[in-house]
Amino acid sequence: MNHVVVVGAGLAGVRSVEALRARGYHGRVTLVGDERHRPYDRPPLSKAVMAGDLDSTVVDSDLGALDIDLRTEVAAKGLREGVVETTEGELEYDGLVIATGATPIRLRGEGPQYTLRTIDDALALRARLTPGTRVAIVGAGWIGAEIATAARRAGCEVTVVEAAASPLAAALGPEIGAHTAPWYAEAGIELRLGTMVGSVDPGGLAMMDGSWIPADVVVTGIGVRPAVGWLAGSGIALDNGVLVDEHLRTSMDRVVAVGDCANWWSRRFGRRLRIEHWDTALHAPETAVATLLGQTAVYDPVPYFWSEQFGRMLQYAGHHTGARLVLRGDPASDPKWAAIWLTENDRLAAIFTVDRPRDLVQGRRIVEGGQRLDEDRAKDPSIPLRDCL
After folding, report:
1. For the segment 152-176, what is each residue's pLDDT rounded down to a tens digit?
2. Contact yes or no for 32/91 (Cβ under 8 A)
3. What's the average model confidence in pLDDT over 264-270?
4. Distance of CA 387 to CAs 364, 368, 375, Å?
5. Are residues 14 and 22 in contact, defined by beta-carbon separation less than 8 angstroms?
6. What is the pLDDT of residues 1-19, one digit of tens each?
7. Global confidence as pTM
């Protein structure tokens, strides 16, 4: 293998390059990215950058020492076996890593709307968050809550609208999401649940029920789609991203995929997962590169995610689809609480914590070990999870 092309210069892309060199690959490496910036981290965009603590999140990687050809402001347009078509011409490859990530979903309408995916997005939005500015945020998920937190701290008048009956309903379910709803009022934020946006118009939001929400700034945070349009017609199998096996191998020879765009098979959970989290972009490249180099490796992590919102640290590990919810503590009386999800045979499938980092650490290990919990003991937050086995 003489030339590996990595398409996507985000964290997953640069970690793929590092993994290639760490595993002894000495051939040519070309890293292609459609932004003008060097590779950078995205999680701080909605946290430290929005808070004004950082202006740059460039990944700490010595690209010069890695001896790669970094091509910024170059986008992939198509793929055929052995060749990537880009806006700057064709790139032949012996091995290919697809790491093109995802793109934000936008709402219809002629009014301006901000999304938060790039460093340029974050800096442009932050500049608009000034005292008294009316900010309307569509979506009460992870990103919406974090932007709402930053906007309120900046002195903005904030309204958050959410189509579901609770915040975080899609991620955690309505029961857990309902326990986070009071946080908005405590922060001085108007939260409108069960309401849908008709269109983003100049000056605000036209709602499906005929009402109008005036806003100087509209932020859309309703999710992302895998950036795989450039692969249409290539022969690569696509379904909610790039379909890959447990080795992160695609349906095309000598091609692997990582990060937000990869829909991979999890042996642990017995289903396909596409995880849009930093932890996946950080660790999946090791498996993908090993596979590309003809080595044996399996990607089967316990997915992990964190969020900082309204002065709280939220953490999640596992995958809870099909498992039953058990509260650990009373969110109504204790600001530090957790939730766990158990399978039919009482194995821990997932854990969510609010300012309980020890629970998260212990719970993540229990999920990794596939161990059972005593449900009655696990409900008691005074008992360490490791003592509930």
Report:
1. 999 999 999 999 999 999 999 999 9
2. yes
3. 95
4. 14, 16, 11
5. no
6. 999 999 999 999 999 999 9
7. 0.95
Q: How confident is the model at residue 388 (pLDDT cuts 50, 70, 90)?
A: very high
Q: List Cβ neighbours of 277 (8 Å cut-off, separation of 6 or more).
A: 303, 304, 305
113-118, long-range: CB within 8 Å, 24+ apart, which pairs? 113/200, 113/218, 113/219, 113/220, 114/217, 114/218, 114/219, 114/220, 115/219, 115/220, 115/221, 116/45, 116/46, 116/50, 116/143, 116/147, 116/219, 116/221, 117/42, 117/45, 117/224, 118/35, 118/45
